[in-house]
Amino acid sequence: MNKSINLKNLHELLSQVLIWAICSLLFIPAHAGVIHVNEWESKPGAPWSYGGAKTDIDCEIPRSPSGGCSFKITYPAGTYQTSFSAGRVEYSLSGEPMDLYLGAWMRYSNPFTFHPNGHKANFFILAGPNPGCRNVSMGYGGLILGMTPQICWGIKTKAYDQRLFSWDPNAHLGEWHWYEGRVKVNTPGLADGVMQIWIDDKPYLNYTNIPFRDVGDNRGFGAIQHTGEWGGGGGTIPKTGYWWIDHTVISTTRIGMPGGASIPLPLPRPTPPKNLRPL
Q1: Smallest Cα–Cα separation from 103: which of 257, 271, 219?
Q2: Which of 13, 23, 119, 193 sits between 20 and 30 A of 106, alpha carbons compared?
Q3: For residue 193, which of 98, 95, 128 has the smallest C-alpha distance?
Q4: Where are the beta strands (DSSP E) in the chain?
Q5: β-bridge mates for residue 92, sequence order
Q6: Three-class SS of residue 75?
């Protein structure tokens, strides 16, 4: 009789532990396509690198929805004869992904002076020789957010900025917003590459007919950048401005605004079974 009871208790115990283990695996909060997340509590080393003017970590401004500190780029007041770099940060990718998403919280100071012709924010950089001529720039031109494949400034270099809704960055100075861009390389020689932008999870830009790579070019992406390029051409910044970045996410699948609907908030991890009867 006691042996029968012990076997029954053992069966119940093992069943409950197995159920708990399976549920734990199912409820792990993960996003399978994520390559890297940086919360910008510091300036990490490789595979991150830094260039252009001095950049900082700022823990004093109002925090982004993700909290903590932020990466800060400074645009000094002055008159400039040509474009200049206010600073940049680059992440070197491994494996050369062909389809890449870059998302981050971004905030421009109030006031802030956008360059009227070209104000860059992110670069998607193709691997291979001459990376300065093998990238897709995401940024503003005439206060219109768009993407420009910079393929050695040839026939493929063109600004794509047909907006799905109106977005005036000057109307949102001093505010945190979620910017997410996607670039998928084309089949070599065909015009089937993809460029997309979301602002606060709302589709803003969508192109599916972009030529990047010629026949024989099978390279994927080698790096991404947050870049404070002010230009093309010179101009005047009447008062020093700042650009803050937080919660940078690099992924091969859609990211979605943190806390938004694209990636559901993780469900609570189940707790271990309680009140198990001893054997």
Answers
A1: 257
A2: 193
A3: 98
A4: 34-38, 48-51, 56-58, 70-75, 78-80, 84-92, 99-108, 119-126, 135-141, 144-150, 177-184, 193-199, 202-210, 221-230, 235-237, 241-251
A5: 223
A6: strand
Over residues 98-111, mean pLDDT: 98
- How many Å apart are CA 231 and CA 246, to the nearest integer? 23
- Please state, in angstroms and rounded to a whole number, the distance separating the CA atoms of residues 94 and 236: 39
Token pair belonging to 269: 């991890």
Assess contact for 179 and 106: CB atoms under 8 A: yes
Count of CB atoms within 10 A of residue 193's CB? 22
State the Cα–Cα distance between residues 211 and 157, nearest whole angstrom: 10
- Residue 194 near residue 149 (C-beta atoms within 8 A): no
Tokens representing 32? 């399978």
Rounded-to-integer distance, Cα 197 and Cα 204, Å: 5
Distance from C-alpha of 182 to C-alpha of 124, rounded to nearest angstrom: 9
Each residue's pLDDT tens digit, 148-160: 999 877 778 889 9
Bridge partner list, 224: 91, 124
Q: How many CB atoms lie within 10 A of CB 220?
A: 16
Q: For 108-131, what is each residue's pLDDT tens digit? A: 999 999 999 989 999 999 999 887
Burial label, 222 (beta-carbon count in 10 A; 0-12, 13-18, 19+): buried
List Cα–Cα distances, 263 to 140, 236, 248, 256, 267, in angstroms.
27, 41, 16, 6, 12
DSSP β-bridge partners for residue 50: 89
